[in-house]
Amino acid sequence: MNCRYGYMTLFVFLTFTLTVIGCATHTIEHDQNVEAFYSPWLNQSFEEFLQKNPDPKQSTPIGQDSYRHTFVYDIESQAEVVVGLLAALGETDTGHDDYYYVYIYVNSAGIIYKADYRRRTETW
Length: 124
Prior knowledge:
Order of helices and strands: HHEEHEE
Radius of gyration: 21 Å
Shape: elongated
Structural class: alpha+beta
């Protein structure tokens, strides 16, 4: 067997492994940033939160005068950057956008008692 093919296989394997690790690390970093965003607001006034972060996308009553307010934040992942470049060059006409949906739960006293988030991807 030719050593050149062995080195090429090793190179492809290492490149793939580093790409997967890099994407996972990037996602974990985004998740930590989202948690750092909402954690200081727990047990704080929702009115103060709205002054800093206006425009909830949706407010849903969940019973006992409590509400769940949904905020949507667009994030730019590495995959989005690459697909955006390919789309600009005319190489592709499909792609995706990543968003964080942050859910803020407010009790009847107007205090944030819980926060949660979900990462969602929309394809185009």
